Amino acid sequence: MKSTIFVASLLALGVTAAIAQSDVVEQRQGLMKEMAAQTRPIGGMMRGQEPFDLAKVQASLKVLAENPKKFVALFPENSKDAPKSEALPSVWENKAKFESYGTKMSQDAQTALASIKDEASFKAEMPKVLQNCGTCHNEFRKKSS
Hints:
Elements: H1 2-46, H2 54-71, H3 90-93, H4 95-115, H5 119-140
Helix pairs in contact: 1-2, 2-4, 4-5
């Protein structure tokens, strides 16, 4: 009887760990999807496909300033081999560098939030923020085929 309870407890711990891994991956993916959704209208404005809208830009920059701070904290060691994750092992191998990219993205977005007042300043400052996305993806995210 004791061994049955022990085995059931181990299984419950394993299931709990698996759920925790998937939760953290879902949280990471949710933050990334939110950032992607914010960059779409920004990209349209950058290309002249949408009119410049300062309120949309500021709302987007707030998300781009906050989400990276939350995001980099969602890579516990036990999520390294989580299914459905697109994170490369380099996230855990170069954790300090990965976290510094999140900090830089957040700081660049905050700087842009303070300095973008019109379309000219938007076109000058926004590329500095968006290049952070590509830099981090190139080094820490699996390439899609």
